[in-house]
Amino acid sequence: MSETSPLPSAGDKSQVVEEMFDRIAPRYDLLNRVLTFRMDVGWRHAAVRSLGLRNGARVLDVACGTGDLCAALVHEGYRAFGIDFSAGMLRVRHTDAPVARCDAERLPFPDETFDGLTCGFALRNFVALEPVLAEAARVTRSGGRVTLLDVAEPASPAARAVHRFWFRHVVPAVGGIVSDRAAYRYLPASTVYLPPTAGLLDLVGDAGFVDVSHRRLGGGAVQLVTGTRA
After folding, report:
1. pLDDT in tens, 63-95
2. How many other CB atoms are found less than 10 A from the CB of residue 96?
3. If you average pLDDT over residues 14-30, what whole number do you get?
4. Distance between CA 185 and CA 7 in Å, rounded?
5. Is the pTM of this model over 0.90?
6. Which of 46, 58, 59, 107 could staple 116 via S-S, CB 3.0–4.6 A?
């Protein structure tokens, strides 16, 4: 990343993003709460509820970060497991769920290990979505569920204008004061890595999930994609 472009080059993305999350880990949760007015908590609980699995089901949270989704999974009665490639995020985690540091493209689990899989606000941080979704399908049992949560843009022109101002100006400004300026320039700009809705649903379907659905939360600022392992 540079002063002119907040996005890393394709070849550097993995290393740059890992180092960025290591740096911002100590204040990551605080800024999530402040910048979303705590709505991020509700979005994660909505994602967990959308799984609809039996009590005690084993659920893997990919890119678990500090453990917010793991905590929500445990609250709903699931057995949570987390993986992330940022050692800094795992170091400050606030979950008792078992976690491992690894690459989402090479998960260290046998086929069909989990009843469900979640991923919150991380799709745009992967180098490529296809191998990540393929691994998600591999470790999820037939009939298991996947829930993917990430940012989006509201459909309404007025709401979209407000969202863009907040996301592109307020988030970098506040993030730069409280944490790391470069990181909070990257995070809003990284939405460019997300495919359009139809393309994202196709990718999830191509990976091996059926009954793929999409809905918006937070007035359209967040998207929730769910599917069932074929």
Report:
1. 999 999 999 999 999 999 999 999 999 999 999
2. 11
3. 97
4. 8
5. yes
6. 59
Residue 137: give its domain's CATH number: 3.40.50.150
Residue 188 to residue 153: CA distance in whole angstroms:
11
What's the pLDDT at 4?
A: 57
What DSSP assignment string belongs to 23-60?
Answer: HHHHHHHHHHHHHHTTHHHHHHHHHHHTT-PPTT-EEE
Distance CA 179, CA 200 (A): 31
Banded model confidence at residue 10, pLDDT cuts 50, 70, 90: confident
Tokens of 190: 């990284």
Residues forming beta bridges with residue 215, ordered by sequence position: 224
Question: Per the structure block, which two tokens stand in for 131?
Answer: 């191998």
- Residue 179: inside a domain: yes
Domain enclosing residue 142, as ranges = 10-229
Considering all CA atoms of the chain, what is the largest pairwise distance in Å, rounded to the nearest integer? 49
Average model confidence (pLDDT) across the chain: 96
Given pLDDT bands bounded at 50, 70 and 90, which one contains residue 216? very high
Helix 39-49 to helix 13-36 angle (10° resolution) is 110
Residue 5 lies in a domain: no
Q: Are 217 and 224 in contact (CB under 8 A)?
A: yes
Tell me the three state secondary structure of residue 141. Answer: strand
Q: Which helix (H) or strand (E) holds 116?
A: strand 114-120
- pLDDT of 2 strictly over 80: no
